Structures are given as structure tokens and as C-alpha cells.
Amino acid sequence: MAVQAMKIALAGNPNVGKSTIFNALTGSRQHVGNWPGKTVEKKEGRLRLQGQDVIVVDLPGTYSLTAYSIEEIISRDFIINEQPGAVVAVVDAANMERNLYLVTQLLELEVPVIVALNMSDIARGRGLTIDAAKLSNRLNGAPVIEMVGNSGIGIDALKAAIQAVTVPDGTAAVHIGYDSALEREIAPLAQAISAIPELVRQYRARWLAIKLLEADSDITQRLAAYPALLEAAEAAAERIENATGDDAETLITDGRYAFIGTVISGALTRPREAIETTSDKMDRVLTHRYYGVPIFLLLMWVVFQITANVSAPFLDWVDGLVGGPVTNWTVGLLGAVGLSGTWFEALLVDGVIAGVGGVLVFVPVLMSLYLAIGVLEDSGYMARAAFVMDRMMRAMGLHGKSFLPMLVGFGCTVPAVYATRTLENEDDRKLTGFLVTFMSCGARLPVYVVIGAAFFGASSGNLIFGMYLLGIAVALLTGWALKRTVYRNKPPQPFVMELPPYRTPRVRDVWRQTWERTGTFVRKAGTIILATSIVIWLLMAIPTNSSGSFNDVAPEDSVFGTVAGTVSPVFAPAGFGDWQASGSLITGFIAKEVVVGTMSQIFVGEAEEEGVEEPAPTFVEDAVGIGTSFLEASVLTVQEVVNIVPRTVNIIPGVNMGEANFLGAGGEEDDTTALESALNQAFTPLTAIAFTVFVLLYTPCMVTVAAMRHEFGTRFMFYQIVYTFVIAWLAAVIVFQGGTLLGLGG
Amino acid sequence: MSNRRASDEQFAGTYPLTCASRGETVVLTEIRAGDRLRKRLGEMGLSIGMQVRIVQGDLNGPVILAVKNDTRLAIGHGMAQKIVVRRLEGEA
């Protein structure tokens, strides 16, 4: 039969494993993590059942279907307008009572509901006993399936249940009975609604009556064309309040929880003792009012030690690979086909390999960062970081929940902009969106790493840590200032957030996520960065005056050099007013990764011409070299992991713990890359820091700018572009001028 | 006012959530908030008459509550001040 594919929706509270189940059903790879608010837009996938395809729609996680946040309206509209064949309600078995609240609302919408009791292993581990058959019975036969989404347990049963609902069996809808005072008013309202054909076509009468009594803001707006109905509902709500002393909404909420109470009584049994869970005990320390913030900072410090130092040996290894064998082989190959010395060789070697290769070198760094973030996310700590930061965020008129999008910004600013959707208040959302760009994203990290390695050696981790802290500080200050000007007189929004229990990070989840995020970076290298590299090479090959010809021109006389040279005086007060630095910053608007790529195209290209040609090693020498240097890198990585301990201990003043050194003195020292030594000539340590500060704060990349426009509008986007540029310029100038005054300019 | 009050006369032994100490189990007696927020809290499992345990308490900062046995909710300081509770009888 050529019918339209059936749709199934996945609904559930935030952080109940919906994404995991979606992935298991559809075979796609959605981002999974242990904190609320990952799925901010609905996503679609395809599930193949016997004989038919089913479209699975993953709705954003919501606690309810009222009109409290954008996500709730998205979810509710989808169910009402698209009328999916069934809704799979994903319920956290270890947090059932609260999770079933959403289920009661789905039942009231009268769609077929399949309850997926996810994380049943955790529930059992906590001593809870669940009788799924009894639950299903109480829910009028709605299938209840016990699952452990991330090990695939129960997926087949869920598929079978979905297959079964494709054949409707006419089961009566579950009726949630309310207080008699309420029921007295629901009936006539529902009757009045039934008399209006346009409404009946779209809504269930009883559901709509309940929503009207709840004074649901979205629904009352949509029913503005029926003033009589709205008036009747208002009068009814008043009568209810007079009769019971309670308002209708409270009675409805209570009624739903009472229904849940009868559903689980006897079906869910819990052990008598052990009220305080392990997770609670961990929270005693990790969210402590005094230790909480220092612990958060310490964890961040360790994360950046890992990203800077542990990955450094592999960075050198990849760099050696790109600069040595890959370049040599390309040159050799081109020579063999007679293209040696042509512009094509220059394009490949100085353009593509220097540009794209210069960026790919940072794959180990980003993998380490994403791995560390993944572990923090999956363990449940990220939500606590928001809690711990609440006090500071409150000082600038936002609350801790705003810190979650900012943490997402450590990975990439684009998802951070979208993550602001989890905030209920539109002003908070805009303000947070304005701040997320100051959270240093993964693409900016390579700049710190290069500069750190070139100027600060083993303490480059401190430079990186400092940059991240500076980003947070500028964000907090900006928030503080905006809250006192643009967003004045707006009281802080109430802060309520669910905290997931701590758990041991799952290797598979963390790895998948690291891989996915690193993959995005690599794909970018193959597309946008490749294209930019070629364009920049061309612009650097085309002369602007008669002093050179195509592919034979001094860089500063090329189109690129001329344009960058025109802009460069702007940066003179900040200490990096040469055309090379400006050029890298201009290309950084395309993608922040490109800054380093451009730098290696400009600086290394120049350096090579001055360098002495070494005899090229043979293919075999190269191949052997790759192997031995990889082993060396592995040893050095282990050494750096070990050294995190003494370096952390050494933060305490007066303590000096020795560091391990596996490969003997200076194993790493002579190992500076070509770019690093070129930078050493172009920058002083002070101008290097000013440059890094500028990169941290200046205008985000064009993808972020587009996301800003999409979420907050064109005007907001322009404010953002101008503000970030001005702040970055000011900060860089302060660093350079201040440093010079203090005599650090040498 | 539509606020639900446990009783109109001053309820002996009630105090704001911020003053509750860690490990204590309390009963919610009043939520001084607008309709919208109260509804939201209700959906998250916080309504009058409900028992909650204080997992992390703080006079000047946010608190963590154990709600409906298995749910852990972080509540901002401002809101914690508006939630009035009474110590559960029989508890230490």
C-alpha cells in the first residue's frame, strides 16, 4: 500500500535517554550527554519495520506540555497538528513519579502512548522493583516496556510495540479524574467546545476544557476569536476557587499527581532505608557553598592541562608528518609527473598542505578537549557546574542555568547559541546569547596552543587556562553591564533545574561524542578551510603592483598582503600592527581554525625561502620515522599525564614536587615547529599575549553570526559583531600598553 | 489572592527553605509566587503539602532538594526564600 509513512514521536523529560533510544531506533548518531537540554529542536529519523517505514521524530525534552518554554510549545504543537500514530513516552525508571507527569498530559491528548521505561538497570540498582505489567494495566493497556537504552535492551520489544500500534485496536482513552468541583466545570465547557466545529477538528474537547481552566497562555491566545468561551472558562475557574479555596491550576496539578499515585501504588516498590544516595553524598562536597567554586576551577585547570600538554607530543607528531613526509611525498609525486616548480606545486604545498595541514595538526588537541568535556558531561557534573556558578551568575542578573549554554560554548559557539533555548525567559536568552561568544570555543584553542608552545613552553597550559578564565570574566562583566543598562529593571528569573544523578562516564558514549565533534572539525578542514586556503593562496599569489608576477611576488605586495596591510594600522596600538597578523585575523572571521592555517601559510611560506634545504629523506626513512616518532609521542603523553599531578600540587605556594621525565633531559626542547620559530621572530611574548587575547574575544566566525541572526535577529547580530570587536581591541590594547608600561615589552 | 495557605493564622515553626539545613526533611506550607511559577513548580513536583529533603542547603545561595523520592532539583536562592516550609514532625 502506498500510504504516507506513519509518524511516531519520542517525548520525555530532559535527560531520560531519549536521544539514545532515538539513535537505537533509527541508527543515527545524535549527540548524547548527561545534562538537560541537548535536543533543542525536533529531529527526524527513519525506522524500518516489517513491511513499512516509520518516521521517528525526537521531540525536545520537556517536563510538561504547558506553554512554559519554546520546546514545550514545539512538542505540543507537533502532537496536536501532526497527529502521530503514537507517542513513545520515554520515562526514567529511576525517577518515575515525576516523569509520569508528562505521560498524564500525553494521555489527556488522547494519542496512543507507549511507555518506554528507560534506565531500568539504574532503578534496579537502587533497589526499586517495578511491575511493568501492573503499570500497563493501570494505564488502560498502554504498552510499558522496560529498557536499558544504551545497551540496546528492550529495543526490539519497543519496535514490536510500535509495529503493534500501527494497527489501531480502539483501546479507550485513559481518563484522569479530577476533584468533583473541577469535573463539574469541565463537562459544560467541553460541551460548549464540542459545539464549535473548527475547534473539534483540531482539539479534543475535554483536553481543551482543562487547558482553558488552567489558563494556558498559548491556548487562550489561540482562542482569542472565541471570547464567549474564554469568559465562560474564567467564570468557571473563579467558581472553582470560591468553592475549594484553591485555584484550578493547582487542583489540576494535584489531580495528575494523585492519578500517578494510584498508577504506581503496588507497581513500584522501593527499599525502606537508604534515602541518601551516593550521588547526594557526592553533592555534599562538589556543590558545597565554599568548596564548590574552587573544585570547579580546579577541574577546569586539569582539563586545560590535558588539552595543552598531554596532546602536545601528538601535535608535534602530526606536525612532523604534515611538514615532513606528506610534503616530501607530494613534491616527489609532482616531480615524477613533471609538475615540479610549477604554480600547481606551490598551490598544493604552500596553499593546501600548509593551510589545511596547519589546521589538521590540532586534531589531537581538540580530541583531548572534547574527551575531557565529554567525561564531565557524561558524569553529570556539568549540571552541577551551573549550580555552583549560580551565585556568580546571579550577581549579574542571570541564573546558573544560563551557565549551561556557556559551558557548551567551550566546545563550539554555534550549539551554544541554540542551547540558550532551554532558558524560559526571552531576555535571559538574548543576554546569554550575547555572552556565549566570549566562552573560548575549540576552534580558538589552536591559536593559544601555537603561541603557548612558541613562547611559554611547559607553562602553556597556564596561558590556555588564563584565556578561558578571561573569557568567563569578560562574559560576566558584559552581563553585569548589560543588566544595568539594556536589560534594566528586569528582575532575575526564578531558577529551577533538575540535577541528573552522578554516574561513571560510559566509555562508549564519551568516545562517540568525542569522535563526532572531532569529525565535525575534520570535515570543516576538508571544506571551508580547504576553500579558504586556496583562496588565500591565490590572493597571496596575485601581485598588486608591477614588482612581481603571478606566483612570484613578495607576500606584502600581493592582493592579500596589500589588503591586510591597509587594515593593519588598526592593530598597531595593540602591538601586532603588521600585515601578517591582520591577515590571519581577517580570515578568522570565516572560521577560527583558519587563523592558524593562514599563519602557517604566511609565516612558514616566508621562512622556507630563507631556510637551508636539507636533503630529502627517502621514503623508507620517512616511514620508519613516522613509526618511531609516534612511539615517542605516546611515551611523552604518558609522561604529561603523570605530570598533571605534580603541576596541580605545585599550585599550592611553597610546594615543589618534581616532574617525571621519561626521555631524558630536553627530550622535547629542540622540537619547535617551523611555525613556532617563525612566530618567535614576528612576536614578542607581550604582543603574542595581546594577539591571543584579541583572538579570544573578537567577532565570532560567520557560522556563529548566522546562528545569532537566526535566533535573535539582524539588529542583535550587528550589535554582537561591533561589540565583540571593540571589546577585543580594547582588551588587546590594554594588555600591550599596560605590559609595556610595566616594562614587560622586551 | 489565590495563594494556597496552610492556615491563615501564623503557623508556628515555619521558615523559608533557605533556613532549612542539610539532611532535614520538611513539608512545603506556602509558595509565595505568581500563578505561572507556582504551576511550573507543581509540575516539577513541588506543591503545598509535599515532603522534600534538603540535599544541599545554603543561607545565601541556591539549594538542592530531593523531591518525589528520586528527583533532585536545584532551586535558586531567590525562589528558595519564597518557599515556606515546616519541619516534618517526628524528625530530628
Task: Describe this entry's structure for a reader.
The complex is a heterodimer of chains A (746) and B (92). Chain A is mostly helical. Chain A has 33 helices and 9 strands. Chain A has 3 domains: 6-165, Rossmann fold; 180-269, Helix Hairpins, CATH 1.10.287; 292-488 and 504-615 and 671-741, no CATH class. A 6-stranded mixed sheet of chain A has the order 2-3-1-4-5-7, with helices on both faces. In chain A, strands 6-8 form a two-stranded antiparallel sheet. Chain A starts with 5 loop residues before the first strand and ends in a 5-residue tail after the last helix. With 92 residues, chain B is an alpha+beta fold. In chain B, strand 3 and strand 4 form a beta hairpin. Helices cover 17% and strands 34% of the residues of chain B. Chain B is built from 2 helices and 6 strands. At the A-B interface, helix 3, helix 12, helix 13, helix 18 and helix 19 of A face helix 1, strand 3, strand 4, strand 5 and helix 2 of B.
Supply the key terms:
heterodimer, A: 746 residues, mainly alpha, Rossmann fold, Helix Hairpins, two-stranded antiparallel ribbon, 33 helices, B: 92 residues, alpha+beta, SH3 type barrels, 6 strands, globular, disordered N terminus
